[in-house]
Amino acid sequence: MIFVVAGMVLVGALGLLNLALSLAIVRRLRRQEEQRRAVDPHAPSGPEVGTKLPMFSAPAIGGEVFASKSLAGGAAALSFITTSCGACDEFVGDMPEFAAQTGLDDSRIVVVIAGEQGKARQMADRLDGLATVVFEEAPGDISSLYSITATPTTVIADADQYVTATHTGSKPNLQALPA
């Protein structure tokens, strides 16, 4: 009986030690993230201005395949959002105003949603008629191709598919949109 009690005490102590170490790790990671944001809260996200848009093709939410080369010949905006981002919900709510101010139709505005598929479909429903929506499981190949490090990020390109501006946040700078 004494061995059972000693074993239970040992397992309980190890469990508490594991919990304490896990909490310490989480606290340290949060502190590091706060320090990173304090140093550079607007760290660049997206391709550099003046570079050519990276090419990709991916299935759109509607089922058709979207190819980025279809954006040639006119100004375009590509936005990257995630399903777990509060600012991304605000971004989706602001999309009607963004589309109206830019004058771009849904074939010239592309929104790449990364994350949980059910929530992505809900976000895509709110973007219906405003943007072509592409889904990726997690920030994956397309986000990596475009060097996306924060969401929401909007990349604005000219008719020749050169990046004219990138903006991180829910309200992109429309002055950078080519005429």
Compute the CA-based radius of gyration.
Answer: 22 Å
How far apart are the first and last residues' alpha carbons, in Å? 82 Å
What's the average pLDDT? 85
Number of strands: 7
Helix count equals 4
Write down the secondary-structure element order.
Answer: HEEEHEHEHEE
Secondary-structure content class: alpha/beta
What general outline do the C-alpha atoms trace?
Answer: elongated
Spatial order of the strands forming the largest sheet: 5-4-3-6-7
Q: What does the largest sheet look like? A: 5 strands, mixed
Which residue ranges are poorly predicted, with pLDDT under 50 across at least 5 consecutive positions?
175-179
Structural description of this entry:
- It is a single chain.
- With 179 residues, the chain is an alpha/beta fold.
- The chain has 4 helices and 7 strands; from the N terminus they run αβββαβαβαββ.
- The strands form 2 sheets. A 5-stranded mixed sheet has the order 5-4-3-6-7.
- A hairpin with a 5-residue loop joins strand 6 (153-157) and strand 7 (163-168).
What's the gist of this structure?
The protein has helices at residues 2-39, 86-102, 117-126, 141-145, and strands at residues 57-59, 65-67, 76-82, 109-114, 132-136, 153-157, 163-168. The chain has 179 residues and is an alpha/beta fold. The protein is elongated, with a radius of gyration of 22 Å.
Q: Helices, strands, pairings?
A:
Layout: H1 2-39, E1 57-59, E2 65-67, E3 76-82, H2 86-102, E4 109-114, H3 117-126, E5 132-136, H4 141-145, E6 153-157, E7 163-168
Parallel strand pairs: 3-4, 4-5
Antiparallel strand pairs: 1-2, 3-6, 6-7
